[in-house]
Design goal:
Length: 449
């Protein structure tokens, strides 16, 4: 694709072609290559059909209307269909050998293209964040394994306070603010999943930097009614919300709020207020200003940094420290590393995973690394020690893991990566070796046990 766009191999003549002519040209080129490789006409036709399907999928993936683009599940389903069709055709061993040689050649060619990438200047266009209202840091309410070392007492105080306030107020809004990585979302999730709110209808919304009131309302409607909203006007949305919120106890989480426009935030509060409802709203934000604007009757709650001992506890848990034979020699070094976390849980967790497979000398290198003193970001809401810890984690990855990690950069911002699919892609790129790959039938059997 890089060669076609940049035209280093004579593809410039394709620039003036219509899309249909261009596709015909691509198919013709593939047909010529396949006919030179295979003697079977049916096999050539099958592979040409495969190429055509891949082109159609690619065109759908760049549809201007994002709603018309297929998700990874649909793409894999289509690819599996054409793989199955090819698999049903009789193939000679010699043909397969030639096909494998062709794949090896194509892999070498792709490496060559990859090497040229740095020297090619392509036309710039809008960034992913301008095209899509999505965020790569999207959170959810799903109960996952969390390391909570000190927030339990804080959680009980907040829950008791919220329940008490909700007895006398129809709507209670509590903003929770603090620097990035401090543990706001984790703390919020603890409250959200607590049994004391089991009789509440609960809604979790990841807001992100792109504030879209309609999407927030649609998310609330979807999660309360379990149906997609067909309302497209504000009055209709308000009417729908009124019915869903009426007479209910509801806990709403607005996670990662960045919007600081007073008008928009007031409009949001007005839409969520209903006289015969009992609504508790939790908001997380990095900004104290945003927290001050969104709050109504409660003071914003600031998440304080963890102590050095708490960060050390997280590092010990994530690094399986207690199971180590050399833990006595590493204790003082580990405590010094914990001090560099700045009280941020994310930094401690990242370092804990990094240190798990390291020996004494490697622990010393992490402690004395110059990365801690390098300016990494100008973002005051994400302090240097957070990004420094992440950078150290990345730099100490094994070569195979680095390839897998770097490969994930091909996915657009906000894309939800299907774990099993990306593992197959790593295997096909020869980043990792397959161990035991289960068929769909075997997976169903495993799930039923």
């Amino acid at each position: 694709m890089i060669r076609i766009v940049s035209a280093p191999k004579g593809y410039s003549k394709c620039l003036d072609m219509s899309s249909d002519k261009f596709i015909d040209q691509v198919l013709k080129n593939w047909r010529n290559r396949l006919q030179a490789t295979y003697s079977s006409g049916s096999l050539v036709e099958a592979y040409c059909h495969q190429v055509n399907t891949c082109i159609q999928i690619a065109l759908l993936c760049v549809e201007e209307d994002s709603q018309k683009r297929p998700n990874i599940g649909k793409i894999v389903e289509k690819l599996n269909e054409i793989d199955s069709a090819i698999g049903e055709l009789p193939q000679k061993v010699s043909g397969m050998a030639m096909h494998n040689n062709k794949n090896i050649g194509m892999r070498k060619e792709s490496e060559d293209i990859k090497g040229q990438h740095q020297n090619i200047n392509l036309m710039t266009g809008p960034s992913c964040s301008e095209l899509e209202a999505v965020d790569a840091r999207e959170t959810s309410s799903n109960a996952v394994e969390e390391l909570i070392v000190v927030r339990t007492e804080e959680k009980w105080k907040i829950i008791a306070f919220l329940l008490l306030e909700s007895k006398s107020k129809k709507i209670v809004i509590l903003p929770i603010y603090g620097i990035g990585g401090i543990g706001k979302t984790t703390f919020e999730r603890l409250i959200y999943n607590d049994p004391k709110f089991k009789y509440y209808s609960r809604v979790w919304i990841h807001v992100s930097q792109i504030f879209d009131l309609n999407k927030i309302y649609e998310s609330i409607i979807l999660k309360l009614s379990e149906k997609e909203s067909r309302a497209n006007e504000r009055q209709m949305i308000n009417s729908c919300l009124l019915k869903l919120l009426s007479g209910k106890k509801i806990l709403i989480v607005l996670d990662d709020l960045w919007e600081d426009g007073q008008f928009h935030l007031q409009e949001l509060k007005d839409m969520l207020y209903h006289a015969d409802s009992n609504i508790i709203i939790l908001v997380t934000t990095r900004s104290q200003r945003v927290a001050g604007i969104i709050c109504t009757n409660l003071q914003p709650y600031k998440i304080l940094p963890l102590t050095n001992d708490m960060c050390w506890d997280i590092i010990k848990q994530r690094s399986a420290f207690e199971a180590r034979d050399d833990k006595k020699q590493l204790t003082d070094i580990g405590r010094e590393i914990a001090q560099k976390c700045g009280g941020v849980a994310l930094a401690a967790q990242s370092l804990g995973f990094t240190l798990r497979s390291m020996n004494f000398d490697q622990w010393m290198k992490v402690k004395d690394s110059d990365t801690w003193n390098e300016p990494v970001s100008n973002d005051a809401s994400l302090p240097n020690y957070v990004l420094a810890s992440l950078k150290l984690s990345c730099s100490h990855m094994g070569s195979s893991l680095k390839k897998c990690f770097t490969y994930c950069a091909i996915f657009p911002k906000g894309n939800k990566i299907a774990k099993d699919d990306v593992i197959y892609q790593w295997i096909s790129s020869d980043f990792i070796k397959p161990t035991k790959i289960l068929s769909d039938m075997q997976l169903d059997v495993e799930k039923s046990r």
